[in-house]
Amino acid sequence: MERLWSVSTFLGDIDGGNPHPILSVGMTLTSGQCRAARALLDWTQDDLAERAEVSRSTVRGFEGGQHELQRSTGAAIRRALEEAGIVILERDGTGGEGVRLR
């Protein structure tokens, strides 16, 4: 399966295990997508936390697979990434999940 360079570098094995998805407006965001999106934006965990108005430990815990996010927290993270120009790609019949810049 072909993947975007940025996604394949940061997502790891998204086909197995628990990718720690969150739900936001009927869509999901995995911890790997979150890491890949930050990499595309050249953001630190602190940068994302500030823009999403959540704690750094929340971002770190989600990306590290230690916990899932509450719906409102996931929506805030997704919104911050999308407002910065990230497009979140979901798994469909043509490919796997990933992220890209608008």
Give a verbal description of the structure.
The protein has 102 residues and is an alpha+beta fold. It has one domain (5-101): lambda repressor-like DNA-binding domains (434 Repressor (Amino-terminal Domain)), CATH 1.10.260.40. The chain has five helices and four strands, in the order H-E-E-H-H-H-H-E-E. The strands form two sheets. A two-stranded antiparallel sheet has the order 1-2. A two-stranded antiparallel sheet has the order 3-4. Strand 3 and strand 4 form a beta hairpin. Helix 1 (5-11) crosses helix 2 (31-41), helix 3 crosses helix 4 and helix 3 packs across helix 5 (71-83). The model is unreliable at 1-25 (pLDDT under 50).
Key terms:
alpha+beta, 434 Repressor (Amino-terminal Domain), two-stranded antiparallel sheet, 5 helices, 46% helix, globular, disordered N terminus
Give the SSE map.
Blueprint (H helix, E strand, L loop, with lengths): L4 H7 L10 E3 L2 E3 L1 H11 L3 H8 L3 H8 L7 H13 L2 E4 L8 E4 L1
Antiparallel strand pairs: 1-2, 3-4
GO molecular function: DNA binding
Protein name: HTH cro/C1-type domain-containing protein
